[in-house]
Amino acid sequence: MDWQTLTTQLFGAGHGITREGDFLHGEVTFDGEPLTVIGTTDHAPIGVQLALRQARAVLDTMTRHPGRAILLLIDTQGQQLRRRDELLGINRAMAHLGMTLDLARRRGHRVLGLVYDQALSGGFITSGLIADACDALPEAEIRVMRLPAMARVTKLPEAMLADLSESNPVFAPGVGNYVAMGGVRQLWQGDLAEALREALASAPTTDCRAQDGAARGGRKLAARVIQQVLDAA
């Protein structure tokens, strides 16, 4: 689904969200309450400039509208693979974006992510996966690493990883597998405005992804290991 169709279904034709390059931003009224919308489109690669623009929008919301909810619309191919961005410190820019979202949450802003098209790699890790909750549309595509790249990093045969992906969501792309692992809380289907209403009302304020992954059978050990570490602390 393209961003214009999505935002019209959520907020109506006069929503006021604007596009500047691959950057989406705006302030809308939803159920009588103001909501800041920040996002990306066209499978945007997240470089230094785009990461800092998103971070600036989060900081402006905290400064001008304390406590206002923030909706992140996610469509990204991951970090910008360009020498210029590497030399400018893309790792620090993306970390800055993640830290602004974490700070917003700590200051009482409800932060909700929605993967409406594509979410890959670091562009997803520093946005939707840092939100209070990250939801997705059923047709969205989510993955952190393709199997050929995973094979190069892990030094395991690609055929072995392909076999593992059939039974273990950790090795497999796809929005359904991220729901099973707890990374995506739920899928929005039917009335999208009603789905947003429910998501804002029920988004957790603590990180329960490991517990969700255990309950759904997608990450069977994470919650147990976390609890063991806490018990030993």
Structural class: alpha/beta
Count of helices?
11
How much helix is in the residues?
40-55%
User: Architecture, CATH level 2?
Assistant: Alpha-Beta Complex
- Give start-end ranges of low-pLDDT stretches: none
Instruction: Give the count of structural domains.
Output: 1
First-residue to last-residue Cα separation:
46 Å
Tell me what the structure shows:
It holds the Pfam family MdcE. It comes from Pelomonas baiyunensis. InterPro entries: ClpP/crotonase-like_dom_sf. This is Biotin-independent malonate decarboxylase subunit gamma. With 233 residues, this protein is an alpha/beta fold. The protein has a single domain (3-203), classed as 2-enoyl-CoA Hydratase, Chain A, domain 1. The protein contains eleven helices and eight strands. The protein has helices at residues 3-11, 48-64, 83-88, 90-106, 121-125, 147-154, 158-167, 175-181, 192-202, 209-216, 222-232, and strands spanning 18-20, 23-30, 33-40, 44-46, 69-79, 111-120, 133-136, 141-143. Strands 1, 2, 3, 4, 5, 6, 7 and 8 form an eight-stranded mixed β-sheet that branches. Helix 2 links the parallel strand 4 (44-46) and strand 5 (69-79). Helix 1 crosses helix 9 (192-202). It is globular. The N and C termini lie far apart (46 Å).
Question: How is the secondary structure organized here?
Answer:
Elements: H1 3-11, E1 18-20, E2 23-30, E3 33-40, E4 44-46, H2 48-64, E5 69-79, H3 83-88, H4 90-106, E6 111-120, H5 121-125, E7 133-136, E8 141-143, H6 147-154, H7 158-167, H8 175-181, H9 192-202, H10 209-216, H11 222-232
Parallel strand pairs: 3-5, 4-5, 5-6, 6-7, 6-8
Antiparallel strand pairs: 1-2, 2-3
Helix pairs in contact: 1-9, 2-4
